[in-house]
Amino acid sequence: MWTNYKAYYELLAKQVEPCTILTTKDGWFWKVLATLIAILTFGKCSRRLFLEDMATTIGPVQAYPRAWPNLSTSIIWHESRHARQARWFGFGISPWLGLPLMAVVYLLLPIPIYFAAGRFLLEADAETYVWEMARKLRPGVKLSFNSRALDFADNLSSATYAWAWPRRWARKYLIRKDKSL
């Protein structure tokens, strides 16, 4: 279980955002949130999917399913970048301070479904941060994240992210980002 190595994972996460807190999705809060997400996505993002197959970051808190055997560096970087984004929305002071504004941008702007540019851009930033970090660890090696970009674009255009952005646009944007890094 990843929880056996929680201190190690927190150390990785704190390299990106020092205030990061790692937890499991066992509590009542996560179950209520899973129910709300299932309702808002008309059941397309089920409670089970949210609770058992997805990592979630709210402010500095990263929540992972307890049953996951381990956490990849990529997922830690991605979720930690969201905690860092929350700090940016808090004027660099604290991810907790930035949480309300980030929530508005992530959930509502400009509209909650299909043209959620805020959610799309925050998720794209977190994912491309992972690509940048991977490239920094392997200088001199030409790494292409083309297929990962396409998969991630498809995911952002699905119920998992409440249809944040049109698939074709998401694919084009992320392929361009991969080439520009």
Q: Helix/strand-derived class?
A: mainly alpha
In DSSP terms, counting alpha (H) and pi (I) runs of 4 or more, how many helices? 8
Cα end-to-end separation: 34 Å
Helical amount among residues, as a percent range? 55-70%
Mean pLDDT value: 90
Largest sheet: 3 strands, mixed
Please compute the radius of gyration using only Cα atoms. 16 Å
Strand order in space, largest sheet: 1-3-2
Order of helices and strands: HEHHEEHHHHH
Assign an overall shape.
globular
The tally of beta strands, per DSSP, is 3
Q: Return the domain count.
A: 2
Low-confidence stretches: none
Strand content is: 5-15%
List the helices and strands and how they pair.
Elements: H1 6-14, E1 21-24, H2 28-40, H3 47-53, E2 56-58, E3 61-64, H4 73-89, H5 95-108, H6 117-137, H7 146-156, H8 167-180
Parallel strand pairs: 1-3
Antiparallel strand pairs: 2-3
Helix pairs in contact: 1-4, 2-3, 4-5, 4-6, 5-6, 6-8, 7-8
Describe this structure in words.
The chain contains eight helices and three strands, in the order αβααββααααα. 34% of the residues are buried. It has helices spanning 6-14, 28-40, 47-53, 73-89, 95-108, 117-137, 146-156, 167-180, and strands spanning 21-24, 56-58, 61-64. α4 (73-89) crosses α5. The protein folds into two domains: 1-95, no CATH class; 109-181, no CATH class. Strands 1-3-2 form a three-stranded mixed β-sheet. A hairpin with a 2-residue loop joins β2 and β3. The longest helix has 21 residues, at 117-137. The mean pLDDT is 90. Helices cover 59% and strands 6% of the residues. By secondary structure, the chain is mostly helical. The radius of gyration is 16 Å and the shape is globular.
